[in-house]
Amino acid sequence: MSPTRGALVTGAAVTAVAAAVLTVAVWPEGSDGNPSGEPASAGTSAAPSPSRSYALSSAPSTIPAVREHTAARGPGWRPGQGSTVVIAKGSQVLADEARLLAGELKVRYRGAAAPRAGDVELALGDKDKGPAESYTLTVRDRMVRITGPDESGVFYGTRTLKQSLKADRTVPEGVVNDRPDRPQRGLNLDTARKNYSAAWIEDRIREMGDLKLNQLGLHFSDDQGFRIESVSHPEVVSREHLTRAEVRRIVALAASRHIEVVPEIDSPGHLGAILLAHPDLQLRSTAGVPSKGAIDISKPGAAKLIDELLDEYTELFGGKYWHLGADEYQALTVRDPASSFPQLQRAAEKKYGPDALIEDLATGWLNDRAAVVVPKGKTAKAWNDGLFRKTKIKADEDIEIEYWTGKEIGARPPQEYLAAGYKMLNLNDEFLYYVLGEPNDFTYPTGRRIYEQWTPLVMRGTQPVAERYSPQILGGRFAVWGDLANAQTAQQVADGIRMPLVATSQKLWDPRKPALSWTQFQQLAARTGSVD
After folding, report:
1. Measuring CA to CA, which of 89, 147, 306, 382 is 20 to 30 A from 403?
2. Are 214 and 258 in contact (CB under 8 A)?
3. Contact 505, 476 (CB under 8 A)
4. Is beta strand 321-325 parallel, antiparallel or unpaired with respect to 290-295?
5. CA dihedral of residues 163, 164, 166, 171 (deg, nearest 10)
6. Using CA atoms, how far apart are residues 119 and 117, in angstroms rounded to an integer?
7. Rounded to two decimals, what is the model's pTM?
8. Order of strands, edge to edge, in the sheet holding 68-70?
């Protein structure tokens, strides 16, 4: 095994090496028109010759790296003239993955058929034959077989095959057993502050699929813009926006790459674009000063407006998740919220009792919005600073907390949420925040720093939380925010986030110390096509 790629399972490796000595196969000398005598493509029909032995294989060259590879001796696989992609009997649900792979390999898709020499076969296994998103890739007898307990796992196996061919022109002999460490892995994109075209977003989705990332957050509503066409409230939509047809196309492409789109309408703060069309709902202090981006949650019309938008967009997006935001409500950033916004204090007491606080009213708002999306089959998400200490009303325990900072007013360390039993996602702004223009002491994150210093347990700053909390940390997303939207062009953003996102994909798939140095990892990224 190469010391720079993959992990060899010790027990399995010993068995595999012993077995491989007895089953040596080589390609005929000079076959496939190759005067050098290198192994010919898998498409040749010539019989193997026992005249030469092969070195023990190394793990495939991929990002993220495969977690386990059992080495073997043999020529490996690459597509030849007669190669096709087939699916196993009873695995018809894999037809889309098979067609995609066949197109990428420039070979024919034969449907549900018995595999032949030179073919790739995709097969769906029993649900209990491995964890979700896992796969087994076997290269043996001039064929490749990719199996998994679900469609996403089989798809990830095809990504390993694709990258290995790109990097080395061959998929090495042996068996890969691979799986992600975390179930949620992705990119978060702020389209509200900076508009991105559908085509630009689709390019990112294709890159994400090859990196085995499975979640795209779309923050499409904020003070600076509301970026998706609306049927229920067209008056709130910004001039530059995605049409509903474009959103459906984005969602469909994401689904074909097993990526879940997680939309976000942030409330009760960050609603400036919506409030331009509904100024009567803007939160104002006793002095009549408007509170930037904040909706007056004491007014019944506020909930009605936001819930109508939630109803519309939960239908448009489908999917399993909905992000409710809940962060940076400006009413709670002043020294004495009750004196500045007495209408909120009165509403809190009326709804929750005389000792209630405005924080209780804001928490109730979050829970009420969750009650809109959860019956539609969604898991609700919220930012960590939307939950407060010492409130009567507690945020619904099923809301997933996305932890981004400890710098905001009232922000708590992640351990507090974990100790309370919440499931969390890591968007640590120390490592994973790409903020355009670098305001407020932000600096553009580097792939090297993520690769060498960050893991899903490093949720705030640079120190990890206790290992015992690991099961509650569902994964993470690398986040792009458009605070100073014109600081970079869309192409500069794409170029700037590429290596950080590649590094993030590696650490979410396998948070252990990588086998490769950063320089070697960069070289591998270029070979696999992960970067241009």
Report:
1. 306
2. yes
3. no
4. unpaired
5. -140
6. 6
7. 0.89
8. 68-70, 174-178, 135-140, 143-148, 120-124, 84-87, 108-112
